[in-house]
Every structure is written in C-alpha cells, then in structure tokens.
Amino acid sequence: MIVQHRREWFARFCICLLFAGTAGTVTAADRVAPEFGALLLFTFSDHSPNFSTLAPIELPPTSDPFSTGSGSGFSLALEGLVHARPWLGLGLRLAYEPFPSIELEARENTTFIVAGNNEEGVILHQLEVDAAFLSITPFARLVLPWMNELYLVSGIRLDIPTSSSFAQSETIISPPGPLFLNGSRTRSTKSGALDQLATVTASLRAALQLGLPVLRLGGVEPRAELGIEQSLSSLAGDANWNVSRLSVGLGFRYLASPPPRIIADTLFRRDTVITLTAGISRDRVTLIGSNPLDSSWERDNISFRRTTIHESWLREVPKPEALLLAGLDVRFVLPDGSETDEVRIEVDEFIRKEHFPLLPCLFFAEGSSELPERYVQLSRSEVRQFRERFDQQSEGESYYQLLNVIGRRMQLHRDATLGIRQETTNSAEAEKLSAARFASIRDYLVDIWRIDKERIELRLAVAGESADALSDERQAAERRRLNFEADDPRILAPLSLADTLREGTPPEVRFYPEVYAEAGVADWRIDVSGSEGVVKTFSGKGDPPGQVSWRFVTSDEALKISGLSQNFEHTMSVRDLDGSQKITTPGAISFSHSIRRQNRAILDTAVRVFTFAWFDHNSAQLKPHHRAMITAIAGSVRNADSVRILGAADLSGTEETNRELSRRRAEAVAQALGLPEAETLGLGASVGPLPDTLPEGRMYGRRVRVLVWHNQDGKN
C-alpha cells in the first residue's frame, strides 16, 4: 500500500509539472532559443518480478523463486527542448538502452548422497535476462529558483522492446563433493527468447540536471544528470515485473544564439478620391488599393521592422439625379409617301400553295440498320387516322413522314410495286448491312401498313464514280441512304402545303422619339399594345434613332392588325447611364381597319411555289425524279402569269462557287420548263427546310424554287 501511494503521488507531481504554464502567451521578451543535447547514462536497475505466469522460465522449487534482482549498464539519449516560459521548458528525449544485464538468484535446500551417507546441501539457481529498449520520454524542465543552472526534470517514459533473451543455470554450493552428470558442479538448464514482453511499458521519471557554464565552448555546454524512474506498468504481461532505476549521466547541450529582440511598427498613408455617384442615398467609402512596403535593420541584437502601407480610398457622395426627358410622336405613311395622324388600314388576304418533291431516300447512321428516330413511326392504331394533309407542317416536318406517305399511297394503289435501291461495294459485310437496312424498312411497311412484302424488293447496285462523288465525312453521310423507286409515279408524287398570305395597305407607321438625357442614354424600348397585349416591340442600346418604322409587309404583322380592336397604345421607356428610367405617358394610335379578301374563284390559285430538290453535289443537271415536277408546272403556268426561278446550293463550297452553281441550276430548270425568258436568280448558299448538318438537309438545300403569280383578268 505504501509503495502504491508513493507511485500515485509521484505521477500526479510529474503530470502537473509537465503541463504547468502552457496556457499563457509567450511575448517577444520571453523568447529563448531551442536547446538540443546528448547524454551518456549509467543506469542501475532494481527488479521485483513474479515469474509464476511467465511460460518460458522454469521456476526452482523454492519458497521465493527469482523474486528480486538487479542489473547495470550504459545507454545513449538525444533530446530537444523549447521554452514555454523562461523558467519552463518542454522537451522530448529519445534513447536506446541495452537493458542492463539482470541477474536473479534463488537458493534450494536439498539432500545429496555422499559415500552412501545423506548430507544436506544447497543448489544456487541463477537467471540472467538480456534486453534492449527504444524509449521516448516527453518531459517538462523547471528552473529551480535558488540556482539558475540547476533544473528539475519530470516526464513519462515509454519503452518499446527491440530484443530480449534469458538463460538459466544451476550451481552446487555445498557439500563440496557432488557433481552433476556433466561432470561439473554447474550446468545450464534452459534458455531462449522472452516473447511475452509488453509491447509498450510506461515509467515515471524525475531527474536533476546541472549545467556547467564555466566549461561552455561556443554554444555547447557540458551538463550532469542524476535521475530516478519507477515503472507504471509490468515489463512482461501478467508477470507483475516492476522496475526501479537510478541513473547517472554526463553529456552536453547546444544552445542556439538567442533570437534578436524585435521591434515592429506600421505606418499608414492614405489617399482619398471623392466622386459623385448616382443611385446611392448616403456617402460610402471603399478601399480600392493597398500597397505595403517592408523595411528592416538590426542594431545591438535588436531587429527593427517597419511596414508602410499606402492605401487608396474612394469616397462616393450621392450625385444629384440627372435630368431625363422622353417623348414619342406617331405618324402614318400614305401610299404617296406623305404622313397623316389617322388612316384606314386595309389588309389583303390570299392563299399560297407550295408543291415540293417527296425526297425519295432515307438515311441511316454509320454501321446501323435501325430506323432513325427522326423519321415518324406510327402504331397500327394510329395508321387509321393518318391523312396526307400537311397544311400545319413545314416542308422539313413533312419529309419525316416519308414512310407513312409511301405506306398510305401503297394502300391506295394496290398494283404499284416499290423498289429500294442501295449502292454498295462487293464486300459480304456491306451487302449484309444493306440487307439489314432494307429489312427494317420492309418490316415497318408490312407490319404497320400491312403492305404485301412481295410488292417490296431490294435492288443492289455496285457503287462507282458518279456526279456526286463524295470525299469528306459530311458528304459520306449522304451515301448511307436507301433510295425509293416505284413503277407507279403516284407513289412518289410531290407533296403540297397551303397557307394564307396577308399584306397591309398602307404598309408603314412611323415613330419619332425625342429624348434628352443629361447622363447619356443606356437603352430604350417602344411597345405597341392592344386589348390582347403587346403586338410590337422596338428596342436598342444608346440613343434611339430619329425615326422608327413599323411596316405591315409580312403575314404575321398584318394578321396582328386584322385581328385586334381599334384602340392601340404606344409607350416608350428610356434608361440613362445613371440607372434612372423614364416612361412616356401612353399615347393612342388612331386608325380603322378592314379585311379585303380576294375573289374566291382565284383564292386557291393566287400564288404557287414549286420546288426542285436533290441535285447532285456540285451539279446543275436535272435528274429523272425531277420529271414529275416539270409536268406539274407545265400544266399550271399561263401566258399572263409572272414566273420567278430561284436557285440555291448547300453550305459547302466558296461563296463565289455557290452563287454560280445556284444560278446554273435556276437556268437549267427554266430551259426544262420552256421558259427561257423567266426571271432567274442564283441565291448562293442557303439553308433549306432542314439543318445543313443533316444529309437530308444538304440535299434539300441543293434546290430550285419556281414562284408563279396568277394575275387577275389575265393582266400582269
């Protein structure tokens, strides 16, 4: 109990010393340079083990076997220390200690037979243990007040064994005659390794260190140390192996030159710029730049440091609101060019019909035989409601109904047959892919539209040099297609679209904006609105133009006017560069309107548009599939009609090449129609009804459009 009490008191004292004083702040005046040192220690150790549970060791039949022992030896330690206070240091010691050779003894009283007589004797049992340890000791060092070079050191030592072994022997002490079987009075009984040593053991350590400044050489100072240690845990498992150590050492410590005392100050130089700023209600100050300049010098082990910070500040003062005025005048333009405040607008309405070819080819992805998703595919139930009316669809949308148009026409014309042609090479792989693509188209027509598969046949053609020989990847995509051929021209006949054109008379309203902005105009906007909301908007950046025109020359603009009430309002909003905004008072646009429709007898034939598509790449030569369109136009053009022929090319090629190619295509159509006097025009590169990135888009882009105006009463 007394030993246990001393251990607890010793542990509490060391822990308090280890953490004392660490909560404070080290000032510049308190700073002391770190220390580094080395020690050679001679250690005497006292051991009190209980080996009853330590398997490798054989215990002699005595009352107190191997209960005490001792050992001595040298160890080497390295340590470093930093100062938390001038009087308190915190450090770490690393040491390698070949554990002093431990000798433990036990005497056994026994009986020997000597010359036929029993004689009492004594056998000495000896146990030697050798071990090596690597130790780590965090510690605190306290300067004792009565002597500056005397230190009290306390810490917790952690030992990690690196090697261990033991050897046991027996020696006959008395009587003098008996011998062991080996012919000697001493014999070895057992040896081996102590595998049951603990992985880590802990000890409390306290020591007195004495510095010898009179022998200091430069920054190296000799020192002596006297220390004691008491184990906190057993050295070997459950053996309750306790160790007490007494060590004496001599070594040195290295003291770096103390850091110079630092005196630092900071100077601020501030420049302030004052500006007038719009949109703020009170002053505000902003740091817009900071440029620090450091300088330093040393004198008498004092380091002077100075930082000069040059700051630039912006002080913004509320700016008086800039003057902003806006006004808007509205005038109507009569046919003779004069202007008036009020006018009657009449809207002419007539029908336009457009005829365009059913592009007889379907494109596949590279290496694929699946029908692309962009082609419309119906279910069996949807087939019944399908009608070939595309008044609400564009020309491009109508093309993607290709399979359904062909299926519907094949149902109506039951004697017609459909050929699907694929240009391919002589390779077996290419022929296999062509057959798979043909099967995808045929299966859709057979399964969905219930067309007899005997009416659909695959026609393969070996690819060769043609007028549209292709080289790059975009052009190569056009070769991944299957072409449709029919013995009945009605299967691939052109499609028709119909819509309504509207034109307003007179065709223009003029707005005259007036703006004065002291701060400058940022943007402006003019809105015209009726009972159904905003019908027209004009906007721009900077100053508005002196005149803004609203012309009714498109169907959309005329339709807005024809379907709205008589009351229109106009407003203009202007925002200046300071963020202020001005909106004019709503003004009325006074006019009456009517819709003048053409005679129903000529309503459906007012304008016709015919399209020739799918010219070969870089070619103006007409192809066989253009004959149906030529026949349709020849039967509808009268001598009094106005005809205009417009040629176009896809986006490949230079601007000059495309313009010349599109002109030749327009002239070729004029010659085929027998209309050499018709107005022809080459538009150059033009995007058709589908994107030029798609192969069908490029084919529709290589086209010619024929516009026919049927004049009333046979007059031009």
Describe this structure in words.
Helix content is 16%, strand content 49%. It is an alpha+beta fold. A hairpin with a 6-residue loop joins strand 4 and strand 5.
User: How much helix, percentage-wise, in residues?
Assistant: 10-25%
Any idea what the shape is? elongated
Roughly what is the average pLDDT, rounded to an integer? 81
CA-CA gap between termini: 132 Å
Beta-sheet strand percentage? over 45%
Rg, Cα atoms, Å = 55 Å
Helix count, per DSSP?
Answer: 11
Major β-sheet annotation: 11 strands, mixed
Total number of strands: 31
| Poorly predicted regions | 1-6, 13-30, 465-470, 598-605
The secondary-structure class comes to alpha+beta
Brief characterization of the structure:
By secondary structure, this protein is of the alpha+beta class. The protein is 16% helix and 49% strand.
Topology of helices and strands:
Layout: H1 2-19, E1 35-48, E2 69-85, E3 88-114, E4 117-143, E5 150-174, E6 186-192, E7 201-211, E8 220-231, E9 242-255, E10 261-277, E11 284-299, E12 302-318, E13 324-333, E14 339-340, E15 343-356, E16 361-363, H2 380-383, H3 395-399, H4 402-412, E17 418-424, H5 428-447, E18 456-462, H6 473-479, E19 481-486, E20 495-505, E21 508-517, E22 521-530, E23 533-541, E24 548-551, H7 555-562, E25 567-576, E26 581-583, E27 587-597, H8 600-603, E28 607-612, H9 627-634, E29 642-649, H10 655-673, E30 679-685, H11 695-701, E31 704-709
Parallel strand pairs: 10-12, 15-27, 15-28, 17-18, 29-30
Antiparallel strand pairs: 1-2, 1-9, 2-3, 3-4, 4-5, 5-6, 5-7, 7-8, 8-9, 11-12, 13-14, 13-21, 15-20, 16-19, 17-19, 21-24, 22-23, 22-25, 25-26, 25-27, 28-31, 29-31
